[in-house]
Amino acid sequence: MSVVLRVDGARWREHLRRTVEANPGLVPVVKGNGYGFGLPVLLAESARLNGERLVRQIAVGTYAEAPTALAAHPGDVLVLEPYRAAVPPVPGGPGLAVGDPALIHSVTGLDDALHLAGRAGRARVVVEGLTSMNRFGAPYGVVPGLLADLADRGLAVEGVTLHLPLGTGHLEEVSRWVAGVDGVRTWYLSHLSASELATLRTRFPDRELRPRVGTAMWLGDPGALAVRAHVLDVRAVAKGDRAGYRQRTLGAGHLLVVSGGTAHGVALEAPSAAATLRQRAITVAEGVLEAAHRVRSPFTVGGRSTWFVEPPHMQVSLLALPAGVTPPAVGDEVDVRVRNTTLLADAVDIT
């Protein structure tokens, strides 16, 4: 049994190349589940792009990911989570040398930075500014003084990093930072559109802007990617038959057992944003259906969406196929819609 991420390798790699070439200084983000590919695949692709002189640096999410990245990627590795003296274990993953010359740390305050310097000496750091994202960062008015203090204490200050909310409309916020913080040549920026980056480069031709890109790089050409699950069993059922742990009543048709469950990230949901009236209405309608034990599954059979018999199991799901619909055969593959940031595929097949 398996859930497989199938990748059109030539098309996907062409997209990667176009993305990097269109964004000078691009820093690929390689973190978490590797956007469904797994970290080893993305690290190998980043190393290949480094070998072609297209990528110098990559970014990882946490210190726990840094040792693997440093071993696989020949360039610099930026850690996005801020260094915290008070968060054990510091620095994180076993075997990580905090002072590795290829490692770049994110800092948001002097005390943490001094703790880092005590462990790593002349550590390479970027200062994270507190943007409208309102997550990590030093406030705008604090950053100039912090930069000076870090330089005075002997840390190698490499620039400022800004993590912005999703969507557009960040041009003036970023411009305020870049124009107002003197002496900083290199800026790491996330979630900016191509037009916003182009405008910033025109406004600040003497600055080096390095976009940090994850989703738009690895998942930016959905047509090159497909997640498929194997059909493991097919059984004709009559109305009133029962199935599953919860013994739900079935209608006439077929019961399908397919690969893919919570262990693969199938049907795992983040809270709905519900930003529009339509999205709220959909959320309410889905809640009503769920209360009636009617939950649409992410599996598609013959172009037709299917319903869960019950919540997915750890590694398989039970699906109801109504009478009149031709069932697939055991061993066939069916499409499955899954968020790549939660996907844990059994295999990644790049052809």
TrEMBL record:
InterPro entries: Ala_racemase_N, PLP-binding_barrel
Pfam families associated with the record: Ala_racemase_N (PF01168)
Positions in coiled-coil regions: none
All residue ranges annotated as the Alanine racemase N-terminal domain in the record: 15-220
Protein name per UniProt: Alanine racemase
Source organism of this protein record: Lapillicoccus jejuensis
